[in-house]
Q: What sequence folds into this?
């Protein structure tokens, strides 16, 4: 029986590329593994997979009775629905430690770096397994995506060195140009339904018993949202009600101006404003310098709820 | 401000030697660190520290506002009481994933091996830091203790290879003889109050909302308990009542016969018996082949409570 290697719900490029890269490594060291996914792939991820010649991993939602290697999260809300009936054999991640628990020993490769694929590169090095050119390519793209081409405060020297090493393996001379191509794909929002945009990179967090959903759209220029912002606002309000959430935040991130406009629907606006030390206007606020949900948006709110 | 490196409550040799070894490594790579402990050291640990010329780490119970590196556990019940007010920067462990969570990214070096010190050796290798002879000595002893000189089912080839490498660094020719000396120290229970014996290696677990305490005493011959078994039984009954526990189990492990007598006080004897598929007599049962609390005692009970 194989081990299923799976990233979080509403998979991003790190979850998909990481599952492929880790499953390959595990197969090379004699542990039969299959990369899977918990949802549709984003246009950015489709661009990456297409560029390096990969199919999307198999869509698989149920893992009861199976062995699972978790990629890019350690939160129950982001894991398969029936994870409690599966055996978690490992976790590779770069986020805060969440509420997943196990009843048997496991391996955890968790590091405070910018991307799970940077940690997976460490695993390749540990096992002394060569990284194929096309896998190096998707790993590199995942790191450029998560670190916003090194601009995010989550980016560490380990991520930069990792991208440089992977670029050499993959034979990519100008990886920053590749990163910009990727973010151009990500910036093409025209004609996409609001719900699809909001859910493109959306994570639920359990904050002291309150369900808080936080979405993020990273683009090259916020003007792409001018015509659809009202639709986005209406949609996150609907999403809050549907999921019985305490709050839904949507970050519209301008990777060139290096900041985010946050759209807010919440049961407690004062709590959100105090978390970010800001004053919103019409439930919107520009947060200068805020690029990272993980490092700049989740922890202050977590503290506000504590 | 230093990072405090601390093992679990009622520290065993892995917690103490691991804290010393990891603090040394962290200091070598430029991260100021101080090894601390959450309780008295056991006679076995005192023997190890004395043999290799170490003082016991500083006793420190409060960590509010401090940065902490957790060794040998990931359970709230085993962590400092005020851990929620500290920042956990890392966890090195070899147990099931417990209920510690964080609000910021951290590093986790968790592996399904026999001892945290085996994982710490991997960290030394990763950072390419030389292990001093005396630190190699205490790390080796911790691994021999946790793996019961390789007899425990928790022992992996990684642990054995690690001990062999550490023995070479420490210049120890007959590490098995050293292990037996250590277990002889551990077997000297005469004259020690029952409570001290019970608490020598005692861990509380949160099993689906129920507090379950499990102690273990590993000796070379169970006959050392003949005269004090009634005292031990009375003491775990008291311990159950004092802590409002659902159950307290005490494992009297014979490392030569390779099995354990389990003393049981519980609110639900049928549940405990079904977990181990056994029938107790006078709240006692011999479990043949059972040497490991972590691998053979906790998971079946966890499942019974699930």
A:
């Amino acid at each position: 029986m194989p081990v299923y290697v799976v990233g979080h719900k509403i998979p991003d490029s790190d979850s998909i590329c990481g599952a492929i890269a880790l499953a390959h490594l595990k197969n090379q060291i004699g542990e039969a593994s299959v990369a899977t996914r918990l949802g549709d792939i984003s246009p950015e991820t489709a661009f990456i997979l297409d560029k390096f010649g990969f199919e999307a991993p198999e869509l698989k939602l149920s893992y009861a009775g199976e062995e699972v290697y978790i990629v890019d999260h350690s939160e129950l809300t982001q894991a398969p629905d029936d994870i409690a009936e599966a055996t978690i054999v490992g976790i590779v991640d770069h986020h805060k430690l969440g509420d997943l628990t196990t009843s048997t020993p496991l391996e955890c490769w968790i590091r405070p770096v910018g991307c799970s694929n940077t940690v997976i590169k460490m695993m390749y090095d540990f096992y002394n397994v060569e990284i194929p050119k096309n896998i190096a390519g998707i790993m590199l793209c995942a790191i450029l995506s998560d670190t916003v081409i090194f601009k995010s405060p989550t980016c560490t020297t380990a991520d930069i060195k990792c991208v440089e090493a992977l670029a050499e393996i993959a034979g990519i001379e100008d990886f920053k140009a590749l990163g910009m191509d990727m973010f151009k794909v990500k910036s093409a929002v025209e004609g996409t339904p609001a719900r699809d945009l909001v859910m493109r990179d959306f994570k639920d967090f359990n904050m002291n018993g309150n369900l808080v959903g936080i979405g993020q759209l990273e683009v090259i220029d916020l003007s792409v949202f001018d015509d659809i912002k009202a639709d986005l606002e209406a949609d996150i309000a609907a999403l809050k009600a549907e999921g019985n959430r305490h709050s839904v935040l949507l970050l519209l991130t301008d990777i060139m101006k290096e900041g985010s406009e946050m759209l807010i629907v919440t049961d407690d606006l004062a709590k959100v404003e105090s978390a970010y030390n800001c004053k919103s206007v019409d439930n919107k606020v520009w947060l200068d310098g805020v690029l990272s949900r993980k490092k700049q948006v989740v922890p202050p709110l977590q503290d506000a709820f504590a």
Notes: The longest strand of chain A covers residues 210-219. DSSP finds ten helices and eleven strands in chain A.
